[in-house]
Amino acid sequence: MSSPLGLYQPGTSPLHRLTPGPKLVGLFLLAAAVLVAKGPWTGIAFVALALVLAALGSLSPRSLLGALRPFLIVAVLLLAFNSWQNGWPRAVEVVADLTALILAATVLTATTAVNDLLDTIVRSLRPFRRLGVDPDRVGLTFSLMLRALPGTIELAAETRDAARARGLERSIRARTIPLVLRVVARARDTGDALHARGVLD
């Protein structure tokens, strides 16, 4: 698997020893700051902060590049489109902000066991049960999301290899349509399995 996003990497770094709650709050605050702050240099500063966190979590450069690789094509398109529509400062800001959030989310999932993360989310939402929030269902949603990310990346790699084997590695259609169909099929199978167990009733 090329991306650590959604995959826990055991370790003894300061971030590994930190409980999931402060890390979730930190990620939330970073996301809020990214939404509020404007300008290309603030975006670059957020990327630098995320890299510092990655160093604290003992994540290797190879792991970080693996996490960013699926985002590269989108980043190039966003950079080109925003440069054309809004100028290069806005383009750099958008791409840098998204890069910082991807890196920060990677640090969180790579330094936190999934079960610990889900237990923290469910426990923190229990006070909101009176307002109609179902903590177990929210926890299940997060669990499915975390498991879907590496699964989708794996499907993308398999689809790319299949297109390459047929000599169609340059065909966007041969790489995207099978991927979309397989992702939708997997989502439908997951929904059917949950429905069969009465989870969504």
From TrEMBL:
<feature type="transmembrane region" description="Helical">
    <location>
        <begin position="101"/>
        <end position="122"/>
    </location>
</feature>
<dbReference type="GO" id="GO:0005886">
    <property type="term" value="C:plasma membrane"/>
</dbReference>
<dbReference type="InterPro" id="IPR003339">
    <property type="entry name" value="ABC/ECF_trnsptr_transmembrane"/>
</dbReference>
<dbReference type="Pfam" id="PF02361">
    <property type="entry name" value="CbiQ"/>
</dbReference>
<feature type="transmembrane region" description="Helical">
    <location>
        <begin position="24"/>
        <end position="56"/>
    </location>
</feature>
<protein>
    <submittedName>
        <fullName>Biotin transport system permease protein</fullName>
    </submittedName>
</protein>
<feature type="transmembrane region" description="Helical">
    <location>
        <begin position="63"/>
        <end position="81"/>
    </location>
</feature>
<keyword id="KW-1133">Transmembrane helix</keyword>
<keyword id="KW-0812">Transmembrane</keyword>
<keyword id="KW-0472">Membrane</keyword>
